[in-house]
Amino acid sequence: MIDYLRLEVRRALRDTGFVIFGIGMPVLMYLLFTNVGGGADGEWKTLSMVGMAAYGAVGAALNTGTGVAEDKTVGWLRQLRVTPMAPRTVVVGRALTGSVTVAPAVASVLLAGALVNGVRLAPGQWAALAVLLWLGALPFTLLGLGNGYRLTAQTTGVVNMVCNLGLSVVGGLWFPIALFPGWLRALSDWTPTYRFAELGRTVADGRLPGPATVSVLALWLLAFGSYAVVSYRRAARTV
Q1: pTM for this structure?
Q2: Which of 189, 193, 133 has its CA nearest to residue 165?
Q3: 225-235 CB burial, b ≥16 within 10 A, e <16
Q4: What is the pLDDT, as a whole number, of residue 187?
Q5: How far is CA 158 from CA 149, 205, 234, in A?
């Protein structure tokens, strides 16, 4: 498992597209949202920092699935079939890879908030914020894996992009859900992205995440994890 994890991490970090779009784009969007048009107050800079860090984390997590779809094309998944690793082991290994590659996307936005926008939090808050945004991205890694195992490489990239944009907008990562109509606010409460960002927002506000936030994320983790395992088993029978 450790050797497999080390291999997949090296492959992901050598991807130039991931470095540019998975790490650079969320930072650029954050700085634009908070500094264009006269700037923003400190509260919005903090909330937007959390939202854009979550957006970068979701994109990096989903990108793991794109790599899986490409692996099917070159025969890597076929080679994994002849190893003694169980489907759950393969999926967990890939999920851990996604979790590792999420860290740079989160850290880059948090650094931009602290160094460029002057966001000030206690050291413990910074640490808790980074850890929660890192760990909380796991459901999206599993969603990306499920798409990658089930779809072609070209289709996976498109579907993951749609998932990222759709969930980010509806989940309030770009704009506060207070601006949404009532029906969309109610829907947003149940999205994994809203609850994911809520982990960071509560910590930045000096509070602990509520049980509803943790429960909703746990349900999505179970759902996306099941989807990833079922998709892997299906792919293993057809490649």
Answers
A1: 0.87
A2: 193
A3: bebbbebbeeb
A4: 94
A5: 14, 35, 21
Answer whether 101's CB lies under 8 Å from 9's CB.
yes
What pLDDT score was predicted for residue 113? 95
User: How many Å apart are CA 178 and CA 190, to the nearest integer?
Assistant: 15
> How many domains, the chain?
1
| Domain assignment of residue 117, given as a range | 2-238
Question: For residue 208, what are its two tokens?
Answer: 């602990």
Per-residue exposure over 182-221, b if at least 16 CB sit within 10 Å of its own CB, e if not: eeeeeebeebbbbbbbbbbbbbbeeeebeeebeebbeebb
Q: How many helices (H) and strands (E) does the chain have?
A: 12, 0
Q: Which amino acid is at 44?
A: W
pLDDT tens-digit readout, 165-183: 999 999 999 988 888 999 9
pLDDT of residue 23: 83
pLDDT tens string 132-163: 999 999 999 999 999 998 888 889 989 999 99
